[in-house]
Specification:
about 425 residues, alpha+beta, Heat Shock Protein 90, 3 domains, two-stranded antiparallel ribbon, 7 strands
Length: about 425
């Protein structure tokens, strides 16, 4: 038989618990072996029957029980209870056929009750011992002479006491083994978590080392970037002061150089802002005033791009403890994203809303919205879908909001566009309410 042919049987046996496998084999061995051993005692001629055929059929019956619980392990307990009843009846039949109360086959009750006590516990064992005693008495009644009730009681006690003891010990052993297995599972889980934590620590150490090197590189790059930007600006002035087709092409190249330098400068500044994130300095500030000032600041830029900026202020928004500079940076990052989403025209709305125990600041655009696949990674560092993007703006915004004890979320509009909302808990609101200007 090949290994491929053995695999289904291996899978079937793995479905069984160790107790079921041991019990099925042990029960078959003691019962078949006991029946064969008692067959060595010569039977009287009038009681003679083909004991060897009975042993063979009994062995096949036990093999069938084992196969049944192997194929359908969910019914194991029911099958074994049924097998116990059948075994008791088989021993009873042997007693009737071989002399009733004077037959040696009553000895089969001992291993039968004891082995079932190992699997089912003391109460089933006690019940099986009482049934065995009654069957012994019934066999004596059907195959005289009668033995009286004293041997029946003695045998029931002799069956029951060892069986109950075995059942109690087996139950304790099973519970102890279950506790050991539970502890082993917990230990395995703990070791797995420790290994995961160790791997994460190694990754964090590597990232910290990379971060320190990157921070140093960013510091060193700032001065050359400033020099390149200044020289490109001076070169642009020189080129614009001259005419000619070559000068027009040179002016375009200078503009491209300055654009790339500005992108690199923005990336450096955002990285330094992320790496040297300052500790917030909370002071009582007007959120509505901050929103108005930011809208006034961005409106000229938006107008030049053909975009409209709308402000929606809730007059009930109280002053609250925030770091004005950091919060302005977070809102500004959302506004920049909104403006970039409106490259083909549209409207940007900056709004504030008082919600009892929190203040919400939202930035909405009428752009194309955000795909779900992109939305799942929006706040990851260095993730961007823009050719010139740094992938740090939203990450910094989230960090700022979390430093304020708040949360930031996004959602697409019902028809078009997207909305980013900053929700800040009110740490200490002033008694007065702002008046909408």
């Amino acid at each position: 038989m090949t290994s491929g042919e053995r695999k289904p049987w291996h899978a079937i046996f793995r479905l069984l618990e160790r107790d079921e496998r041991v019990f099925a084999v042990l029960l078959a061995v003691v019962m078949v072996g006991g029946l064969a051993t008692l067959g060595l005692d010569p039977l009287r001629p009038r009681r003679f029957f083909d004991l060897y055929s009975i042993v063979m059929w009994f062995s096949l019956y036990k093999l069938g029980i084992f196969a049944l619980v192997s194929v359908n392990p969910k019914t194991t307990r029911v099958v074994f209870l049924g097998a116990l009843a059948i075994d008791l009846l088989i021993v009873f039949g042997l007693l009737v056929l071989t002399g009733g109360g004077y037959s040696l086959f009553y000895l089969l009750f001992f291993p039968l009750v004891a082995v079932n006590a190992y699997y089912f516990g003391p109460w089933v064992a006690l019940g099986a011992a009482l049934v065995a005693g009654l069957l012994y008495a019934a066999s004596a009644a059907l195959a005289p002479p009668l033995v009286g009730w004293t041997p029946v009681v003695i045998l029931s006690v002799l069956f029951g006491l060892p069986a109950v003891t075995v059942g109690i010990v087996a139950g304790r052993e099973r519970r102890a083994r279950g506790e050991v297995e539970r502890l082993n599972v917990e230990l395995t889980g703990t070791l797995s978590r420790l290994q995961t934590a160790q791997q994460q620590l190694l990754v964090a150490e590597r990232m910290a080392a990379v971060g320190r090197v990157s921070l140093k590189v960013a510091h060193e790059v700032r001065n050359p970037i400033s020099a390149i930007e200044l020289n490109a600006e001076m070169l642009g002035d020189i080129v614009r002061g001259r005419s000619g087709e070559d000068m027009d092409e040179a002016a375009g190249l200078v503009t491209a150089i300055r654009d790339q330098v500005n992108t690199l400068d923005a990336l450096t500044e955002e990285y330094l802002a992320l790496a040297r994130f300052p500790k917030p300095n909370f002071e009582e500030e007007s959120v509505n005033q901050l929103v108005r000032e930011l809208a006034d600041f961005v409106r000229p830029v938006a107008t030049r791009q053909g975009l409209a900026v709308r402000v929606d202020i809730d007059a009930d928004v109280p002053t609250m403890e925030v770091d004005r500079g950091l919060l302005r940076q977070a809102i500004w990052n959302l506004v920049k994203n909104g403006l970039e989403a409106l490259s083909s025209g549209g409207e940007l709305t900056i709004a504030s809303r008082f919600d009892g125990d929190a203040v919400e600041i939202s930035v909405s655009d009428t752009g194309a919205g955000i795909p779900e696949a992109v939305g799942a990674r929006l706040f990851e560092q260095f993730f961007t879908t823009k050719p010139q993007g740094t992938g740090l703006g939203l990450s910094i915004a989230r960090q700022i909001v979390e430093e304020h004890g708040g949360k930031i979320r996004w959602e697409n509009g019902t028809q078009r566009g997207a909305t980013f909302t900053i929700r800040l808990p009110i740490k200490r609101a002033s008694a007065s309410r702002e008046v909408n200007a």
